[in-house]
């Protein structure tokens, strides 16, 4: 009997241009890949450490490595849920274990979950934060995409969203403020979004400062992102938010994400399945989860200068389910 072997690697993928949100700009995506070998079978999972949640690339790598003996000893996904808290490290390991199970058994993750055959999905395409003029130009360049996700940053967002609407008059719009709105500007900026026919606003207020949402008319549905990490959060957020953004790097993998989705539905919340900026390996398990989503935001590879091979098949904004050669 061979022992399973765990390895971990840091990869850097250049971003096409730059990716700008309210917290800053990046020109490359740094991802961590966990690989579990069991004889001739190999499972992989990708995660993106995020400083907003106190994560570093080095810290996530070290956390993954602490599980080497557990992996060699045959720990399963349930055991991994108990061994590590939600976050990027557990995501990489959880997804690698799902992939390994599929490779060893010949039974796809879709079949294991009892899902119908997955279908191609329309993903949002992200426009970075910038000046109104630059964002209008970016919107014009992407105006043929059916769903645009607009990064906002606080003061001046009324002009930014109006400019995007001018640039893409027929596209559906969602916006993501990444906690950047001040309470005193919330009503006016939400009104500006309503005027621009925005369908959803992600995390406008900082985590812990969102009680305002409970008592203020929401002209546009509001989605929790940074405020949501676990299934338990869905209960606490239901009186303030209309939707939640489920990301595998926050939940700690597909296993927990499935529970979060069920909890969201049970509490009357709409669901977005989102991502960090990563490669197709990170998006692949999320595409399966997103089969049940109201909004899909899995455009990470579209923001890169190049993607891994084989990757997901993107045709414009339509993303197809993963092939076994990639994941699952």
Automatic annotation (TrEMBL):
The keyword Transferase does not apply. One of its GO terms (molecular function) is metal ion binding. The keyword Magnesium applies. Keywords: Isomerase, Magnesium, Metal-binding. Binds 1 Mg(2+) ion per subunit. InterPro entries: Dipeptide_epimerase (IPR034603), Enolase-like_C_sf (IPR036849), Enolase-like_N (IPR029017), Enolase_C-like (IPR029065), Mandelate_racemase_C (IPR013342), Mandelate_racemase_N_dom (IPR013341). GO terms for biological process: peptide metabolic process. Gene3D superfamilies: Enolase-like C-terminal domain, Enolase-like, N-terminal domain. Its cofactor is Mg(2+). The active site is at 151 (proton acceptor), 247 (proton acceptor). SMART domains: MR_MLE. Its EC number is 5.1.1.-. Residues 132-223 form the Mandelate racemase/muconate lactonizing enzyme C-terminal domain. It comes from the Bacteria. Mg(2+) binds at residues 176, 202, 225. Belongs to the mandelate racemase/muconate lactonizing enzyme family. This is Dipeptide epimerase. It comes from Kaistia soli DSM 19436.
């Amino acid at each position: 009997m061979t022992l399973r072997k765990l390895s971990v690697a840091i990869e850097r993928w250049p971003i096409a241009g730059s990716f700008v949100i309210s917290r800053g700009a990046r020109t490359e995506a740094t991802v961590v890949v966990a690989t579990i070998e069991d004889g001739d079978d190999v499972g992989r999972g990708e995660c993106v450490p995020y400083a907003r949640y106190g994560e570093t690339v080095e810290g996530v790598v070290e956390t993954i490595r602490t599980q080497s003996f557990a992996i060699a000893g045959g720990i399963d996904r349930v055991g991994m849920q108990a061994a590590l808290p939600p976050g990027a490290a557990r995501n990489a390991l959880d997804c690698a274990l799902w992939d390994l199970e599929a490779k060893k058994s010949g039974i796809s993750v879709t079949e294991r979950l009892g899902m119908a055959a997955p279908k191609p999905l329309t993903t949002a395409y992200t426009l970075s934060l910038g000046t109104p003029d630059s964002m209008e130009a970016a919107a014009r360049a992407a105006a043929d995409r059916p769903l645009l996700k607009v990064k906002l940053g606080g003061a001046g967002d009324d002009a930014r969203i109006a400019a995007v609407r001018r640039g893409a008059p027929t596209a559906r719009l969602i916006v993501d403020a990444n906690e950047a709105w001040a309470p005193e500007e919330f009503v006016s900026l939400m009104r500006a979004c309503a005027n621009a026919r925005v369908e959803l606003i992600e995390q406008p207020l900082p985590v812990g400062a969102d009680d305002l949402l409970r008592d203020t008319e929401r002209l546009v549905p509001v989605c929790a992102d940074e405020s949501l990490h676990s299934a338990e959060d869905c209960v606490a957020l239901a009186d303030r938010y209309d939707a939640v953004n489920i990301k595998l790097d926050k939940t700690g993998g597909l296993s927990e994400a499935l529970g979060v989705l069920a909890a969201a539905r049970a509490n009357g919340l709409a669901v977005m399945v989102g991502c960090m900026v990563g490669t197709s390996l990170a998006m692949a398990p999320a595409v399966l989860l997103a089969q049940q989503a109201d909004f899909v935001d899995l455009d990470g590879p579209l923001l890169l200068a190049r993607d891994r091979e084989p990757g997901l098949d993107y045709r414009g904004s339509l993303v197809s389910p993963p092939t076994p050669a990639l994941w699952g």
